[in-house]
Amino acid sequence: xxxxxxxxxxxxxxxxxxxxxxxxxxxxxxxxxxxxxxxxxxxxxxxxxxxxxxxxxxxxxxxxxxxxxxxxxxxxxxxxxxxxxxxxxxxxxxxxxxxxxxxxxxxxxxxxxxxxxxxxxxxxxxxxxxxxxxxxxxxxxxxxxxxxxxxxxxxxxxxxxxxxxxxxxxxxxxxxxxxxxxxxxxxxxxxxxxxxxxxxxxxxxxxxxxxxxxxxxxxxxxxxxxxxxxxxxxxxxxxxxxx
Length: 243
Description:
Number of strands: 10
Radius of gyration: 17 Å
Strand order of the largest sheet: 2-3-5-6-7-8-9-10
Order of helices and strands: EEEHEHEHEHEHHEHEHE
Oligomer: single chain
Helix content: 25-40%
Structural class: alpha/beta
Number of helices: 8
Strand content: 15-25%
């Protein structure tokens, strides 16, 4: 079992659109829970304090699956529809995701996971039966780019391909200078997503300096609009974020 099991660093009631999930119960809220740890090493990580956190070095509190679900149920009067596992990389602690999501489903709640998707099929299949929606970060679209970030493009693509068969899926790409800002690569990315379904919502979001990339400029909004136009050639639902 993961050392982060039931160790929570963040718990908040968020608009579902903040995940971002734009076409999954829009207008609702979802109880969002995060732990610590990640299996990638992105130099632009916006949640690096918990993503790189270690047990004993970061403040946590224990929240059992049962307590998490009770809290979610108590928030139904505030338009809460369920539980989202997010903030850090939740699938490094997939046992907690699996156990809490299974209990949530038994209680009639919706479940969502915000993930980098750099997870084996075996691990995905542990949680997949209990997850209604995923937002998956597609960091870039080259094997070399993923290696620079400590990930594996083929594994992420396989994760997405499996998830779309069983759950609602939305995909996000943060447009980072020198990592994911190529217009040609965007065309390839959108075409691949469309090959799975042209109705998969795709979020193209603006980078702001963070972590080890503090000297970079925020993504040019004009570039974001060009990338959106490119993606819209093959995808029906393309959204800009952080504008």
